[in-house]
User: What shape does this take?
Amino acid sequence: MNSLDKVLKALQDKFGAGITGHASPLPTRLFINIKAEMVREISNEVVTLGGRYLVGIGHDNIARDGNIGMIHTFGFDKDNFIVHLNAAVPGSNPVMPSITPDIPGAGWSEREYQDLLGMKFEGHPKPKRLVVADDWPADIFPMRKEVPYNMVPPAAEDVAYQLDECPEGCSIIPVGPFHTALHEPEHFAVYVDGETIKGCDYRGFMTHRGIEKLCESQVSYNEVPFIAERICGICGSVHATAYSQAVEMAGGIPVPKRAEYIRSLLLEIERLHSHLLWLGVAGHLIGFDTVFMQSWRVRENIMWLSERITGNRKTYGMVIVGGVRRDITPVIGEDILKVCAKVEEEVKIIHKSITGDTALHKRTKGVGYLSKEEAIKWSLVGPVARARGIDIDVRRDHPYAAYSELQFNVPVVDTCDVWGTLVVRLLEIYESISLIRQIIAKMPKGEILTELSEEIPSLKHGISVVEAPRGESVHFVITGEENRPDRWRVRAPTYPNLQAIPAMLLNDQFADFPIIVGSIDPCFSCTDRVEVVSVTSGKKRIMSKSEIEFISRGNR
Amino acid sequence: MDIVYIVVNIVIFLAFAPLFEGIVRKLTAKVQSRQGPPIIQPYYDIIKLLGKENFIVDNWAFTLAPLMSFAAIISVICFVPLGYKANFLTQYADVITIIYLLTLGGVSILLGALSSKNTFAMMGASREMVTMIMVEPVLAMTFFVGAVKVKSLGIDSTIFSVMNTGYSWAVVLMMALYLMALQAFVGKQPFDIAEAEQEILEGPFIEYSGPNYALFKYSMMLKQMFYASLFVMVFVPFLYTGVYALDIVIQLCEIALVYVLIALVGATNPRLRIDQAVKYYAVLIVLALSAVGLSVYGI
Assistant: This one.
């Protein structure tokens, strides 16, 4: 009996009638239907059995059976499988128990569906608005199917997010909505006593683009990857790959081996790019602009290489459902190796000077401390988790693309601070370079794309996890009719990591705020991916698409 | 005739301070593999700021602060024996006057920041205050090491004490300490804590714009040049020729070298946190006190 069956059996033995059904379409995926009122107990048991909370997916099924569903997903990293707990509640009264009190990482997932689907989670410790704008009407739930994708309700005046109460004797320092240290709009209210941080409240989701809704209602399967790529300016291929894999899994579409290698290649190039970019930003955040400029100079080689391979410096537009769009020619292969050699050499110099710089140690060691236990509790991912001694990496734990055929180490350190994340990222640069060399050497010949000839059957579930540079991205797809997904849920790695930021900030100095937030390599807009475009205020003029195009082409 | 020296002082400082800032920016750019702005960029910056709109907080202190800061540093410059020439004003003041006037410059930054009532400015002001309190003693001790030697607090006799009586262990120690405190004196990395763009967005100056901000900027540049020239005058007086114009040129070259040092240290260090900086300053103060002690015993 393998461990997937063991988990199922353990749950059946313990909860009996609480488990109403199960399916395991792949040896690595287990779907369990459960009774909504037992979701908290069953989730706790799954965590006890070794599950790590990934994400919650709410979906509107009212048209079919009158229910709204909430799927909590858990990864079993040692045994390479993912468990889905599917609970459904009637659309007329969508109330279910909250699992957040025991699993804090689920806090945002539940708040999200409170906003978007009108669900209620009993016992949620902070049931505030998360996703929709403050002036969004309280009785319109945008992810419900009856709400059109382009609905624009009238803007309201005098509505504002109510911040958490400030601890006694502290003053509030606003960081954002625009702040030099953070390159995207978001608002942290930091409660400080002198220079010491005593708390923090976060209000983000300010750049709602309505991507999920758009893709569920307007475009077709193979147009989504290009929109998915635009979720993030840095890990675009990650999202395109994760989405494509989820559809391929749901629809049983085979992918040619060569395409899988090319996908891995793109993901590793993206990781190299992202880590060098992060290193520069981190240097800038602690006022060390020389690190910033030098690592971005090295990064420029990668940008050049990306353009050589894909025609674009960023946002490659390579990955689609069924494979990739361009092949790697032998000439380009040589260029890749040349750039790798150059980058490796330069990164070694940077690595050496950083590890020898005591001033830099002073600013990063012991800063943003979060213990391993806390990190597990918050379901941290990526380098942020690996800097806290948590040995996870979905490239190894839930292999996809060509990773099962490649050798690499997963650097893990246990300093539990910002310094650790820096070390992990630096070491991962070398691993990525080694992976790219292996890929070029091992890449098999053959096709690069399976054309979608047959219709993808509807109401199939697919989940895919891809290790982005900042941690794993989770994409969940429920296939639909009309050649597009019925539900597509994206969870970028910043989503869990950002939730733990208040815990990391506690009792640190305000001067360390930028680098602590920077240490998770935050990507606020990735997190802000959901919902209908909102109008900022009634007074402002809305620009038409043609006007924006006009301006973006350099005109005034 | 002595009055002419004062005018020369002011003209040279006003003319060269932005140039040296430009050198720092260019050098920093080179260290960072950048092309960098033209060396005369700081002049453009000041001219541009002077022509911009002046947004003010409705508060007399807010408008007074930049003027006071500029006036304070200009007054300091009047007393400086540039080109090894004591001028007309030097005899009416002593080193305590210089320390007071420099402190006044710091106080006016505080005044401006506090009157703007901006959260970030408040934070910057408190950092500025801590820096002022901790760094000022090192400057004072620099003068006192000389003052003890020549048994006078007079500006020229104190500043020229090394030139006239030679190096001693106390002077060598003080010289090292001065260099260690230099980045803090001039407010450059790793001690640009009060401004810290990435944390508190230029702190005390966040609400300033246009001509007011230009005055602050200019005062900061003049202050930096003062500290660099003080180092040259006190600790490396051995290139004295006796020809006034030639001495000024030599001193300016030496000041440029001090700026090179400032740029290199600034480009190769991250910013420290205020708590880390305070510990560093505390060590400097203790060592500076012992330098004065050594000087008392004539070591």
DSSP finds twelve helices and no strands in chain B.
